[in-house]
Design goal:
elongated, DNA-binding, single chain, N-terminal domain of MutM-like DNA repair proteins, 2 domains, 267 residues, alpha+beta
DNA sequence: AATGGGACCTGCGCGC
DNA sequence: TGCGCGCAGGTCCCAT
């Protein structure tokens, strides 16, 4: 479940530690995580290239390379990047010119590595909604206007707005005091403004604390992020609401576990 | 357009 | 105790 704050945390750490270094070799332990091209071409295409630029779009990490190609990394549920690598449970290991390795770990193999000519051409990128931090309240309200879906699945829709997953959708809606099952179109102008504000606030705060380590997210150095202790609803079912003391509920919405306070977030 | 389901995966927690 | 089952969720894809 790495979402925008977790991927941003990793991106910033990568910039400090591997930017400008050369990939001197690639060891593939689990070919299934390499989505394109085939393993041999993937290894060959990365051999000897320098990492020129590191970007994030939504939850996707992009390393631009001296060859003109890019390495796109999606961590999906359980993907990790660890530097310096320790070789433990690594699916793919990148040897760098500093003698250390960058390890890609992924227990469940949902993660995706792609070596591509132009990352702008990725279908995922072409359909991707705007970055929360590059959006104005007016634009956000406008995008919300015609939507008939429930607000929580909509926030998680990467084509609507990028970077928000199950965890931060729950946290944001609690802070905006909006019930996750509300139809998006039913939100008042004030609620839309507050929601947008809380999206930015929550993501910013989570980045400050370097992400939420529930499940398997770790920072580039292998250590957990610190934001879990600030969660107000996620994974807190049955526990007292930090505002009103009522029990936090968990329901299924769009097939996903959804946490909220029935008192603070009424229908 | 929206919604629901399955697929991809594996480790964990639960019930019996 | 041990086993089998369901669940967890990011994204894509298909069906309705």
């Amino acid at each position: 479940m790495p979402e925008l704050p977790e991927v941003e945390t990793i991106k910033r750490a990568l910039e400090k530690s591997i930017l400008g270094k050369k990939i001197t070799g690639v060891i593939v332990y689990e070919p299934r995580v390499i989505r394109e091209p085939k393993k041999e071409a993937f290894i060959k295409g990365l051999q000897g290239v320098t990492i020129k630029n590191i970007l994030r779009r939504g939850k996707l990490l992009i390393l631009e390379l001296s060859s003109g190609k890019s390495l796109a990394i999606h961590l999906k549920m359980t993907g990790q990047l660890v530097y310096p690598g320790n070789g433990k449970a690594s699916r793919v290991s990148f040897k760098l010119s500093d003698g250390k390795t960058l390890d890609f770990n992924d227990q469940r193999l949902f993660g995706e590595l792609r070596l591509i000519d132009n990352w702008h051409d990725l279908k995922f990128i072409q359909k991707l909604g705007p970055e929360p931090f590059a959006l104005t309240p007016e634009e956000f309200k406008k995008r919300l206007a015609e939507k008939k879906t429930k607000i929580k699945p909509l926030l998680m829709d990467q084509n609507f707005i990028s970077g928000i997953g199950n965890l931060y959708a729950a946290e944001v809606l609690f802070r905006a005091r909006i019930n996750p099952a509300r139809p998006a179109a039913s939100l008042s102008g004030k609620e839309k403004e507050l929601l947008f504000k809380e999206i930015k606030n929550t993501l910013q705060e989570a980045i400050k604390y370097q992400g939420s380590s529930v499940d398997s997210y770790v920072k580039l150095n292998g250590q957990p992020g610190n934001y879990v202790k600030y969660h107000k609803v996620y994974d807190r079912q049955g526990k007292p609401c930090l505002v009103c003391k009522q029990s936090i509920q968990r329901i299924a919405l769009g097939g996903r576990g959804t946490y909220f306070c029935p008192h603070c977030q009424p229908r």
